[in-house]
Amino acid sequence: MRGHQNPVEKPTIYLDSAATTLQKPSGVSRAVAYAMGHCASVGRGGHPTAMLAANTVFQCREAVAELFHVPKVEQVIFTQNATHGLNMAIKTLVHTGDTVLISGYEHNAVTRPLRKLNATIKVAQSPLFRPDMMYQRFEQLLTPDVTCVICNHISNVFGYVLPLEEISALCHTRQVPLIVDASQSAGVKSIDVQQLQAAFVAMPGHKGLYGPQGTGILLCNQIPNSLMEGGTGSDSAELEMPSYLPDCAEVGTHNVCGIAGLLAGVRYVTKRGVVSIAHHEKELIKKAAEELTVMGNVWVYYDHTQIYQSGVLSFVVKGMDCEEVGHLLGEQGIAVRAGLHCAPLAHRTVGTMEGGTVRMSVSTFNTTREIEQFLRVLFRMTQR
Amino acid sequence: MDYYFLLCRSLTYAQRTVAILERGGLSAYLTRVPQTVAVKGCGYGVKISKRYLERSLSLLDYHQLYPKKIFAISIDGMYQEHPMP
Prior knowledge:
By secondary structure, chain A is of the alpha/beta class. Chain A is 39% helix and 15% strand. Classes of the chains: A alpha/beta, B alpha+beta.
């Protein structure tokens, strides 16, 4: 990542944006710092600093609603991260013993809450980059016993863009609620909440939306379970939680500094354009994938049509442990993530469970020169 | 000048109310609900000029956003409930 210095003052080429985008638009840190010094608690007073905080949070709701075509701003809920939002959504729609249908590319943020609920999990297994086969599996497995469908938009391991619109239409036809995990797609894929008709769409604020860590969003088409009860700054005389959005789902003091930063990030994404960001990332991944493929001893999981590939790419170096590759790249100042990426189900589906993969993932701030440097370092490493 | 106070369901609803009115060219001021008129405890509402009441309610009706209650604020600061349209 150009211009960034890690703690040992060594320049880093940052290729781990699927975990979190490290380089943010300059307005993000400014907004966080400003909020830290000027914004008090939302809904906890009428003084100027409380009202400034309230205004910041409201502006962020409006910006998010505009980006994702959410009809009403109160349907935008701020969470700690995507996992928090997914837990809220799952624990609203899934009850102990229910049968849930999920894709074969889901994250532990989906499978672990389902396990906790002792849900019967049906997995629509299908090969990588075969959305037609995935749709068929969903069609076969979406039987009357299924009470909820949960689907990733983009696999966090392989960057595979799943056929979400088709799956959503299927759920709508069969009247089964859908939860969407948009962790990798928010900011790089157009998401229209009204068209999608999902019950909930969960996403982080700190990845493709370029907000700070500790921010997330849950877009709600119905009232979610907050997971907690407490102060909301509203209906304070009542023992019961408010029944309306967003108050019913946002308990305790908001992460105003994080939300201020998220607002700057969302404004950046809106201005730069989701399509433009996605195009830039796809070009970088295309270059990396094509050159990795000809290295000979590297196995790349890539959609050569590019249609179903995002800015995330997995590969393995034959004869090397993926963690060793990640470590050696790190020593050369290149940040990637190796292992199972908290998504063992995706690795089982593709057949990489035993050894895991090395994952590189880009953002709008990566450059072609950085990819070339990464390729040179990896090439030298594989020629040892 | 006399004012009216639109008691809103929540802070976010009050903020939406202000946004709609201001985008419609009407002045509106977000403020806390006085405890003397609060229905369920703390909350927020929107203060508007008396002369904007009708246009405000019409604009809010268009956006299907309705206050919970309406109060007239007299010159001495007293709140008197006003019938909902």
